[in-house]
Design brief:
Elements (H helix, E strand, L loop, with lengths): L1 H41 L5 H49 L17 H48 L6 H32 L8 E4 H10 L2 H6 L3 E6 L3 E5 L1 H18 L5 E9 L2 E8 L6 H6 L19 H11 L3 E6 L5 E7 L3 E3 L2
Helix pairs in contact: 1-2, 2-3, 3-4, 4-9, 5-7, 7-9
Amino acid sequence: MKKGRIKHSLFSMSRYLAFFIAVCLVVTSSFLLYFRTVMNVAGVEFQRSEIEYAAKLTFVNILFLSLVLTIIYAVVRTVRIRKPLNRILDALSHLSRGDFSISIDEGVPGNETEFDVIAKDLNKVAIELRNVETLRTDFVSNVSHEIKSPLAVIQNYATLLSSPDLEPQQRIEYCGQIINGTQRLSTLVSDILNLNRLENQEIFPSQKSYDLGEQLCECLLSFENVWEDKKIEINTDLQSDVCIISDRNLLDIVWKNLFSNAFKFTPSGGNVSLSLHVEDDAAVVHVCDSGCGITPEVGKHMFDKFYQGDTSRKSESNGLGLALVRRIVDILNVDISVKSKAGEGTDFRLVLPIEIQQKQ
């Protein structure tokens, strides 16, 4: 590659040198024409040897100046153009090979050239590509792990089921574990597909008017078995006849994921509360629990894909629930905020800044 650049530089130098030699010939010829005109008009006689000497001297002087200018231009071009351009070309070559670790010098702030601006943009591109590559690698790793776990459960219990000496109760228990494993796989695949469609903007919200309180009640009641098993106290404060215009199916995913998290992190005997009120022409929903709460460090990543702050409950979720919630509320223009302290529970607050219609 360096040999090619040297060859290209020599070729460029030869082109400039040829150009300046041509200029020398033109200038020298012009001087000769000038002398001939002076001789004819003024009647001044110059010896042939004097004319030849003057022509040669003019040619050499111009050629010398041309060479000096060529060298100066070549040095300036190398320093100001060729070197930064070579750095940019090297960076592009690394990026094209999948090497995103490159970083180009961006010059002195306040004295930036066009090449420095290009270098800065390329550094940003490299950083974004590194982040995307990291996300891709993490995504593949997490998906592989999440799929492998239920598959191992299914395989193990299917192997145990093949034993002819199993008691009926054991057979029922093993079948239940296999069903749970397949449900986890089904949920994981559905969440991945939904999240992918949301991120690629393949899902277009269907805006329709409906009763938000009714939807919240239906979603909450779908967890009745969970709160009864854990003896969780349910507190509701829902303003009646609050109608919103939004996508009911997408918001179903939001409410069910928030309720699922609330029940999952609330210990037996705890409480979960749900409230709905209209404030400043917006529907405000609170989903609160008395669970373990969220530390500031966990709070920074709670909406990341596959992130699970409480690893002791990894078997109960796939880490995609809140990522789906984040993407949906962004699409539906819903404001979401979280208030939580470790050991004091969590409060999810959602504001739907859309048209509110009160039933008459």
